[in-house]
Amino acid sequence: MKTFFVAFSILSSRNVRLAKNIDAEVIFLKDKFPYIYSTIYTIIKIIRNKPRNIILQTTQGPILFIFSILKKLLKYKLIGDVHSGFIIYLNIKGVALNKPFLKFLKDLDLIVLHNRQILSFLPFNIRKKCIVIYDPLFNFKEKINIKKGSNILIFSTIMLKPDEPLDVLMLAKNKLNDVAFICTGKKLNSKEIISLGYLKYEDYLKVMNSSDAVLAMTTREYTNLSILFEAISLEKCIIASHTKTLKYILQDSALFFKDADELIACINKLKNENVKHEYEIKIKNLKERLINIELNQIEILKRILDK
Fold it and tell me: Can you give the pTM of this predicted structure?
C-alpha cells in the first residue's frame, strides 16, 4: 500500500510532520498559480506509482476539482487536508477560487480539518466524514545565545497578512522599553523590532526556543496558527490573540489579548519568574494532553488508509 501526500504552492511544516507520522510520501514541486508544471509532474507521478491513497493539501478549489476527476479514473482513495481558507473567505479572490468548488468535498473519502470550530460551516452530510487533527507536535531542544539587552524576549512571526494586528504590536512595543521583540518572516522597516527575515526551519526553531515567550497573533476566527503548536512543542509561554478557536485549544494554558493594553499586561505578567514558570508548566501539561489526542486521531487516520 502506498500513500502520497500532495501539496501545491506551499508545503507546510504541519503536513511534513503529518506525512511522516503516517508513512506517506510527500509529492511537492514548488510552483506558482495556476500550478501547471507541478500538476503535470504530480499526475505523472501518480500514474506511474498507482498509490492507493492520496492526501491532498486542499487550499484552492481547482486542484480539488482535478483530483476528484482523477479519482474516478485511477480509483484511489482521496483524503483532503482542508484549510479554513477553503471554506471561509476574506476576499473576492477566496470566493472565486474556492466557493464554486465546495461541492467537490462530497468526493472526498475523508476530510481532515485543522480545528473543530470550522465544522459548523459544513453541511451535515459532509461533517460525518470529517476528522480534526491538530498540527503534529515534536521535540526540539537546541537553542542559540541571544544577547537580549532587556528583561524579556518575545518571539513572533510576521507575514504582513491582513489578520495580523501589527498596530497592536507596535503600540505595545513603544510602551515597553525593557522588552525585546524578535520576528521572522517578512522584513519589517522598524528599529523597534529585531527582524530576521526568513530563516531555515531549524534556525527558526532555535530562535523561538531561545525566547522567553511566543506571540501568536491573528484577528481571524476559525484559524489555527502553526506557531501555536511549535511553541507548545517547545514548551514556551504563549501570548495569543483572543479568538474562540485559539482559546478552545489553549484554554487556561496561555495569556490572551485583544488590544495593546492587554498585550502589555500579558507581557508584564511574564516578567515575574513565578508566573512565567506557572505558564511553562501549564503548556507542558497541555502538550501531554494534545499528544494523547494526536496519537488517537492519527491511529484513526491510519485505519482508514489501511481499509
Answer: 0.93
